[in-house]
Amino acid sequence: MATIPVDYAITKIVALLENEVSLLGRTRYELHEIKQELMSMKSFLVDADNRRVSTESEKTWVENVRDIAYNVEDIIDEISYHMNWPQSDNKFTRFLQNTIQTPQNMWMRHCVGKKLIRINNKIKAISERRQRYGVTSIEGTHLQDEQKWGLNRGESSLFISGSELVGIEDDKKSLLKWLTDGEPQRKIVSVVGMGGSGKTSVVAQVYNNPGVKQHFESYAWISVSQTFVIEDLLKSMIKEFYQATRELITMDLSYMSYRQLVEILVNFLKSVRYLIVLDDVWHTNLWPEIQLSLPDGNCGSRILLTTRKRDIAFSSFGVRSHVLFIQPLQEEEAWILFCMKAFSSNQNKCCSPEIEALARDIVGKCGGLPLAIVALGGLMASKKLEIEWRRVCNSLNWELSNNPILETVKKVLLLSFHDLPYQLKQCFLYCSNFPEDHFIRRKRLVRLWMAEGFIEKIKGLAPEDVADSYLMELGHRSMLQVVLTPSGKPKGCKMHDLLRELSLSICEQQNFCQVYKGTEVVEEIRARRLSVQASDKKLESWASMSHLRSLFMFVIGAPSMSSLHSIPSGFRLLRVLEMEFVPIKILSEEIGNLFNLRYLNLKGTCIDELPKSIGRLRNLETLNLYQTKVRALPNGIARLHKLRYLIASYYNLELVDDFNYISWTKAPSGIAKLKNLRVLHFVEVKGNMCRYVRNLTQLTCLGILKAREVDGKALCSSIENMSLLCHLAIMVSKDDEVLHLDTISSTPPQLTRLNLVGMLEKVPLWFQSLRSLTTLSLSWSRLNEDPLPYIQSMPKLRRLTLINAYGGKKLHFLAGFLSLKSLILRNMPQLEEVVIEKGVMPEIQNLWHSKCMALKMLPQGIEHLSHLQHVFLANVSEELVERIRGEDSVDHPKVRHIPKISHYYQTSAEWLCESLS
Questions:
Q1: Which of 252, 430, 620, 797 has an alpha carbon 20 to 30 Å from 2's alpha carbon atom?
Q2: Any idea where the NB-ARC domain is (predicted)?
Q3: What is the pLDDT of residues 870-880, one digit of tens each?
Q4: 147 has pLDDT over 60
Q5: How far apart are CA 216 and CA 213, in angstroms?
């Protein structure tokens, strides 16, 4: 982790040296010298990081190197700032600028040169101190102690009484079933969960079960370290198996080779029903190395392993397997376990009412993690006063890092962190910038990681794909709680509360980032990233923050502070400015001075206009204006050639049933020449601009307003040219305009979402080729023909929205819709009847009817929709509502299987909701 700032500095030096600019002058030599020194330092730091040593002298040296690297980065960014000073397009003005700036450049070069010389001297000085105080080699004693501690802790689970465990009965039953099901083939049973989730404890209870010991003829418990030696594991297996059968080992294992050890095990186990537990497996290469020693004699043998990594659990290499995911304890289970430990001396082990709220808050921070619950319960057992409980509750970060009672929790969680590659370490730590329990959307996180430079360049892969793999890997390693879409892609993630607390302590030590919640006394911000999670702080009151590279602002509670009406100045080296839903009203012209800015998120702010200076942000990759009132982009946007994401749409949810519920943003025609764009949503496409849109071949998401003069054939041709397109939204400018899309001959193969707003004369024939489509929305199509036959066979369609899409009186779902989960019917004034045949849309879970006043009853056939969970009704006829209101209603027998039916209706003052289930 200590190498990250050094990597940044080296990368920036290389980029600057490759740029042949006169501004460098004599500073080029100093930069070369610094680069060489930093590369040597990096090698030492990588070794230190891998071995995880922590002597005070090494800590001091690492801190010095990190500070030097940050200083180098600051100077290089300062050079880049002057190199990138915007030049006027007018030749005479440019001449005047150069005349004025030449003396300034000479003075700046002189100052930078002096700074680099001072830094070079500092580097040499700390290198000499390293030699002087003996920080010359890495012994790795702490790593060895850490591994030994981990092995001992795992084996101690064998001696824990079942009465001390809570919420494991279902997991025990599953494991017992898989181990003793009588099937003769050898099987692997994997138990997966984050560190401290109780994997080993559950397995130990099963392993010690008398019925299990009777079922297997021999058994062994093997604790696997992160750096195992295969020969040592084989020796341990031989000793355990022989001991279980009470046979003496007559041979000397000490000097035996791998081949000899495998031969002993194969001969011993080939006709025996055995059970072996491989506890705490960290690497997929264990099974290939060990499988030959565990023969399949068709005796019903089982291999039971525990791991923190999902990829290991699913790497069975052709062996039949089962996987058990250990879930966090339920809220009440967690509370029972905590009370057992914290109030063991109380009568009935109950919590006093005075501290119950604080106690439940502490249990909540454990996130159902048994190890943490037990440890915190033990910590609180000696605390009787409310003020003591409140102090721990408010300073859990400090307690984790400093309280010996919680040392076990810290060590267990750190094992997973230390096992991460350095790219994943920084990505993981970065998530602690977000507030506690915050759901972090995948797209947002990926764009932030890219802006920070965390994503490794891999030939043949887009940075977004690499970032997605990072997120999935952190999920597989149980470091982040990743939520998947139905298609298996990551939707977003959350941090476990304790992992976040641990992450914050590491971030503070490394000056990686700092979180301000409004209660701390802050004299100076030293971190490179600042996350403000309080809306009453004036940033100007802190000391200079010109070194900041990322600024996050989150509105916690009701915002009412004038200090948030505009972005403060003084952040000229920022790479990331994250202001989502912060109520700022003005974006100053000074924003154009942030030449380093890669990411600007103004989503949901009160801004209605962008300053012209935005065109100077030549490094900008992400500009998010979603749900703002910006209706026109300045011409300078077309000069942002590194721009990858431009999101400018506004949805008025109060007008969702009306044509104009989407507002678009006018963009200059030159925007279609930004060939790095991957997302362009939602802008107006005019005549000539349409010709250039076809060149945006990297687009994965396109949302456009088609002006009347745009040639439909040209637009169709452009869409055909976008082979990477996943999301397409097209809207006409007037509700009486026809959307001509008939000439599309081949659709983008990866298209998963399609939203069409405008009249359709007929259903496009190419609908039947949309084999990857998961979401389809047709708004104001006003088709005369039934669109369902063209849609019903889409194999992956999960969400179908029809808003004034069909002018007929009856929608008849005759067949198909096998994957559909949600059906939304809105603003269908002529619709009188919906019929769903038995066997159609068998997976449907949600059904919406809104503004369908002619509909007098729920769909015929609704009684066959066994998976239906929720029916939403809004602005529907009273006759329809009466048919399902109350147990004596006409259609109650047809809907009683539906868990939730919500009826939304509007009074003169507000919207109300009535439950009809």
A1: 620
A2: 169-346
A3: 999 999 999 99
A4: no
A5: 6
